[in-house]
């Protein structure tokens, strides 16, 4: 019988490429339970070009716990395809042994127990060590940042992204693309981009008034590395003014614009590009479709959907690399480019085990410098948790349930809504919850907690709308978030149905009664994309609630019934 | 819950109005297509419609249409109460048979572009444009 790995090699040979993934080594090390920095970094330098990819850091400069999703459903052609495979099936697919470090890093099961063994992951000082080690082997390696970098923490909010920019500049990336950065407001984005010592890219960032490429963001940048002319084309998050408040960046328009992407690929190839890399914040399924529509891209470094994949995914002659989120992973991709053609590649998803990889002293000091003015506020203990607090997954996580509980009790609402974002580190059972922890799951520039009245019919419309952003069978219509989290109400969702008929059996949990389409309910929520939203900041709402609770109790949420998975 | 007779009548009217609109809109688009093509067969190639998959603002959706060799192109919004958006006529001196405009969409719907070629044949392109409430992007 042909093994999956043999098959992967064979299929690559068939398309005139040879490749290897570093994952085999890592998994063997895991079996030996012997993790060392040298082993994590071990890589036989290959070909003539090295790419280093980090993405979706969400301002997590320090190591964190981050539980990967239990539920990550694929629809249409992506049903049952990576990254829509989780837990034991994921481990089986990649030959990961139960209880191994890769089990802990890449899947959700037994997370709390394994976290005690393997510790926190990430930390930009550890990432710096990895980047420096790669540069020691390949001095002209390209470091590429996929965006969602200047958002997601207490210090990032209070410095308007400056803390992360200072740390990232010290890492010396070569290019970056964008998403949440724009929620700093267009003036601040322009100010930061103006001073950026590396390329700010986005072929799909357009001037909203003239519908032509925006002057501040170049579509691509050329690099000459290892004697190879490389073009890196940026692709920002396509649905920024829809998923995030467009009024914060009214001068810009986005969209997938794959026809313009094809023009850019043709343009750089005509200018002599021997290797074309797309630094993307599309999300994995969107990138997969784009790779099948646009020809001539060698590598897509994907971001946005926070997937971490130990092996590249091949679409035609394009390889897709998914490097996780929150600083948990760094991807290294070595390419052999000959006569304008990718002849082979070697890839490794490097897990940043923070207790194994030595922090880079210079970056560690720089991070502490950013945090020093806020240290007292950051470290204040607000309460404790008796269970695991996590967010990642298509439906409610325990952090979301806690936020919804806070909204309902502090804002006296029947129903609570919390956005289905994919960022936000986890907190282990028995751990203190600090103010920093609360900000890590709530920080944003539009965090006002509103309180309003909605009819049952309108609540249904919202759920159907968000559901279609997630479960539309065509990836180009997916926005890459998860389902809006609901407190106080249960429902049934059939993900195979079209928009308008996925959501049924909406039930008010406090009374057990069916939601009446004509009746009005008091709804509290946060992260409204509407301008002028009023209410207290969500982090204050959550802090008050946790303070009142003392110790937060996590109970399994069974209020969402999922059908058609 | 009990409804008064008057409320019940109002609800019934609401339901009727809600179902009436899409039906009349469907008829309206079919009428508009028939008026332009005279019921002729339409090719699925020869015309390119570029529209966003999801509208950033349903009140002003930018679209582009291009059909080399076209004498005229009509743009229709299949789900708007009045589907007609624009008709572009190209004279013999036109440098390119392409146009761009912005349109208002009442909701998620198909945008249809039909070209009448100089040889009298027709070609159409269709794309769904989603109009969404937004929020919750991760």
Automatic annotation (TrEMBL), chain A:
Keywords: Hydrolase, Nucleotide-binding. Residues 397-535 form the 5'-Nucleotidase C-terminal domain. PROSITE patterns: TAT. GO terms for molecular function: hydrolase activity; nucleotide binding. GO terms for biological process: nucleotide catabolic process. GO terms for cellular component: outer membrane-bounded periplasmic space. Belongs to the 5'-nucleotidase family. NCBIfam families: TAT_signal_seq, thiosulf_SoxB. PANTHER family: 5'-NUCLEOTIDASE-RELATED (PTHR11575), SULFUR OXIDATION PROTEIN SOXB (PTHR11575:SF42). This is Thiosulfohydrolase SoxB.
From TrEMBL, chain B:
This is Thiosulfate oxidation carrier protein SoxY. Residues 36-136 form the Ig-like SoxY domain. It comes from Salibaculum griseiflavum. Keywords: Signal. Gene3D superfamilies: SoxY domain (2.60.40.2470). PROSITE patterns: TAT. Pfam families: SoxY. Transmembrane segments: none annotated. Residues 1-27 form the signal peptide. InterPro entries: SoxY (IPR032711), SoxY_sf (IPR038162), Sulphur_oxidation_SoxY (IPR016568), TAT_signal (IPR006311).
């Amino acid at each position: 019988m042909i093994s999956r790995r043999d098959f992967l090699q064979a299929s690559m040979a068939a398309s005139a490429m040879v490749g290897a993934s570093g994952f085999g080594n890592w998994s063997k090390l895991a079996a030996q339970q012997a993790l060392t920095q040298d082993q994590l970094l071990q890589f036989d330098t290959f070909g003539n070009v090295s790419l280093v990819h980090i993405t979706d850091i969400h301002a997590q400069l320090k190591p964190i716990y981050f539980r990967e999703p239990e539920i990550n459903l694929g629809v249409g052609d992506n049903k049952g395809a990576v990254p829509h495979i989780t837990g034991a099936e994921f481990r089986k697919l990649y030959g990961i042994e139960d209880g191994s470090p890769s089990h802990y890093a890449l899947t959700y099961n037994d997370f709390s127990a394994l976290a005690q063994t393997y510790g926190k992951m990430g930390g930009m000082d550890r990432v710096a060590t990895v980047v420096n080690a790669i540069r020691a082997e390949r001095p002209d390696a390209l470091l590429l940042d996929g965006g969602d970098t200047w958002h997601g923490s207490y210090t990032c909010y209070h410095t308007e992204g400056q803390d992360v920019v200072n740390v990232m500049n010290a890492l010396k990336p070569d290019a970056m693309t964008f998403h949440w950065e724009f929620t700093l407001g267009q003036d601040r984005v322009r100010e930061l981009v103006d001073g950026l010592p590396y390329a700010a890219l986005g072929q799909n960032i357009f001037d909203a008034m003239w519908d032509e490429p925006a002057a501040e963001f170049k579509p691509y940048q050329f690099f000459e590395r290892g004697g190879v002319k490389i073009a890196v084309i940026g692709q920002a998050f396509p649905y920024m003014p829809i998923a995030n408040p467009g009024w914060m960046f009214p001068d810009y328009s986005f969209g997938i614009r794959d026809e313009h992407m094809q023009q850019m690929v043709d343009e750089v190839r005509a200018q002599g590009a021997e290797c074309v890399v797309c630094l993307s914040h599309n999300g994995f399924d969107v990138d997969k479709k784009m790779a099948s529509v646009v020809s001539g891209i060698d590598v897509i470094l994907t971001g946005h959907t926070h997937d971490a994949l130990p092996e590249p995914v091949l679409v035609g002659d394009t390889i897709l690399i998914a490097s996780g989120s929150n600083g948990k992973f760094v991807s290294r991709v070595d390419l052999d480019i000959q006569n304008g053609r990718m002849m082979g590649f070697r890839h490794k998803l490097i897990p940043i085990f923070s207790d194994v990889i030595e922090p880079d002293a210079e970056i560690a000091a720089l991070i502490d410098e950013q945090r020093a003015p806020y240290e007292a506020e950051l470290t204040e203990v607000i309460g404790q948790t008796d269970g695991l607090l996590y967010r990642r997954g298509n439906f409610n996580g325990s952090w979301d349930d806690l936020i919804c509980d806070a909204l309902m009790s502090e804002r006296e609402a029947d129903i609570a809504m919390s956005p289905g974002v994919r960022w936000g580190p986890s907190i282990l059972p028995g751990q203190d919850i600090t103010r920093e922890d609360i900000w890590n799951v709530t920080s944003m520039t539009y965090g006002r907690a509103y309180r309003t009245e909605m009819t049952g019919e309108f609540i249904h419309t919202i759920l159907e709308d968000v559901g279609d952003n997630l479960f539309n069978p065509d990836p180009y219509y997916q926005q890459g978030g998860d389902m809006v989290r609901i407190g106080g109400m249960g429902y049934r969702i059939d993900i195979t149905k079209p928009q308008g008929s996925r959501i049924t059996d909406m039930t008010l949990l406090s009374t057990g009664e069916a939601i009446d389409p004509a009746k009005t309910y008091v709804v509290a929520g946060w992260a409204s994309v509407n301008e002028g939203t009023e209410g207290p900041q969500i982090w204050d709402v959550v802090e008050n609630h946790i303070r009142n609770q003392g110790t937060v109790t996590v109970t399994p949420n069974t209020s969402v019934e999922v059908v058609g998975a | 819950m009990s409804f008064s007779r008057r409320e019940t009548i109002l609800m019934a009217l609401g339901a009727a109005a809600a179902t009436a609109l899409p039906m009349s809109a469907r008829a309206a688009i079919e009428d508009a297509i028939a008026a332009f093509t005279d019921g002729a067969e339409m090719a699925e190639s020869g015309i390119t419609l570029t529209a966003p998959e999801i509208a950033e603002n349903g009140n002003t959706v930018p679209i582009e249409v291009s059909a080399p060799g076209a004498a005229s192109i009509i743009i229709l919004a299949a789900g708007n109460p009045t589907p007609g958006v624009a008709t572009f006529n190209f004279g013999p001196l036109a440098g390119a048979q392409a146009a761009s405009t912005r349109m208002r969409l009442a909701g998620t719907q198909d945008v249809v572009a039909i070209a009448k070629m100089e040889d009298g044949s027709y070609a159409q392109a269709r794309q769904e444009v989603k109009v969404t409430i937004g929020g919750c992007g991760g």
